[in-house]
């Protein structure tokens, strides 16, 4: 598989959030300003050191593509995974009802009350810190455009498409900055894709990527907020609210997962598709064959919802199962999702298992040539 200008057999990387060093969150250093670190040299140094520590864990494990780790910083709810973007764009009022999906229903849905525009960089500081810490190819992760549109309460635009395209325009401006500053791969984390993709969602992501030379990967997330898999609300639940998180029954319907994104995902111009296999097994890979997916596929082969570290042989077995659906030259390997719900020691050991399992299968493939 191509990583930049180099062919790499079964390249390895991680998805999304990684545990921050405890000193960063616990001693008042976790400050990520809107815009640049201009006046606060202490916060900038602490942020870059935190990124350096996360990069070190990946390089020590032997990963081929280095991820930023999503170090947002700050104790405020606005610094968490989705609010980071809302507070860097105009148009959003930081209050509202709960988000209308069970596992995310403890989060509020900001109100769109005026035109949405990008006001501050989303990830330029992140890229610069990661690029400074490694000479390997760098991947920077964004929350998906469809996520931000779906999680907001639109009271300004006539259609959801208009809101989605406004967010896509803001993302495109940010992508252009990352392209100019040496980013290799941009990853979009779309954790509402398993609930379906529509026409405007395809239009928005294609617009945001158009003309940008970086590779674009989409991580389709099966749910990991608080370590909880995604699921659908009860059909007879007429009082949907934040408490739904605690009301799940064994009969709750699962999203249709991969079946929900095919064949619509074929209309996107993304470089690579990624989703979990480690926890769910290879059954969700059948649509790749049914719909002739001929682009790179990044298989999650590390179960991030388990505190038990896989052995290298267990990871190798998972990789072999993926190779029944995806040619080796089109396959990359990752964690199922972000490791943020695990402690750093366990997370680091799982990265080692990923790299070691890939090395076993890589040697087997090279021995067959």
From TrEMBL:
EC number(s) reported in the record: 2.1.1.14
GO biological processes: methionine biosynthetic process; methylation
Organism per entry: Mycolicibacterium chubuense (strain NBB4) (Mycobacterium chubuense)
Protein name, entry field: Epoxyalkane:coenzyme M transferase
Keyword field: Metal-binding, Methyltransferase, Plasmid, Transferase, Zinc
Keyword DNA repair: no
Any Pfam family hit: Meth_synt_2
GO molecular-function term, one example from the UniProt record: 5-methyltetrahydropteroyltriglutamate-homocysteine S-methyltransferase activity
PANTHER family: 5-METHYLTETRAHYDROPTEROYLTRIGLUTAMATE--HOMOCYSTEINE METHYLTRANSFERASE
Cofactors, names only: Zn(2+)
Domain Cobalamin-independent methionine synthase MetE C-terminal/archaeal: 10-197, 263-357
Top-level taxon of origin: Bacteria
Keyword field contains Plastid: no
């Amino acid at each position: 598989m191509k990583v930049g200008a180099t062919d790499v057999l079964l390249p390895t990387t991680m998805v999304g959030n990684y545990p921050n060093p405890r000193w960063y969150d616990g001693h008042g250093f976790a400050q990520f300003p809107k815009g640049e670190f201009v006046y606060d040299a202490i916060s900038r140094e602490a942020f870059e050191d935190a990124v350096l520590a996360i990069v070190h864990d990946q390089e020590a494990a032997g990963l081929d593509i280095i991820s930023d780790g999503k170090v947002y910083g700050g104790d405020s709810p606005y610094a968490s995974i989705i609010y980071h973007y809302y507070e860097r764009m105009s148009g959003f009022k930081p209050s509202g009802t709960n988000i209308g999906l069970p596992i995310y229903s403890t989060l509020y849905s900001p109100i769109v009350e005026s035109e949405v525009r990008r006001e501050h960089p989303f990830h330029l500081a992140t890229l610069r810190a990661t690029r400074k810490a490694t000479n390997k190819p760098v991947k920077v992760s964004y929350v998906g455009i469809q996520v931000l549109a779906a999680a907001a309460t639109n009271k300004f635009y006539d259609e959801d498409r208009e809101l989605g395209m406004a967010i896509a325009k803001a993302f495109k401006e940010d992508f252009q900055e990352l392209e100019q500053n040496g980013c290799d791969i941009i990853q979009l984390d779309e954790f509402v894709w398993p609930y379906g993709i529509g026409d405007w969602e395809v239009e928005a992501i294609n617009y945001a990527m158009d003309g940008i030379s970086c590779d674009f990967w989409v991580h389709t997330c099966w749910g990991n907020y608080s370590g909880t898999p995604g699921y659908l609300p009860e059909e007879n639940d007429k009082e949907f609210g934040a408490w739904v998180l605690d009301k799940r029954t064994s009969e709750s319907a699962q999203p249709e997962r991969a079946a929900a994104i095919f064949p619509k995902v074929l209309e996107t111009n993304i470089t690579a598709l990624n989703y979990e296999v480690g926890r769910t097994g290879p059954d969700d890979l059948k649509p790749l064959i049914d719909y002739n997916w001929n682009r790179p596929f990044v298989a999650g082969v590390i179960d991030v919802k388990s505190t038990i570290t896989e052995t290298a042989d267990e990871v190798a077995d998972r990789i072999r199962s993926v190779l029944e659906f995806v040619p080796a030259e089109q396959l990359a390997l990752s964690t199922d999702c972000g490791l943020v719900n695990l402690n750093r020691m366990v997370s680091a050991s799982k990265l080692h298992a990923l790299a070691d399992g890939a090395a076993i299968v890589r040697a087997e493939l090279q021995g067959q040539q």
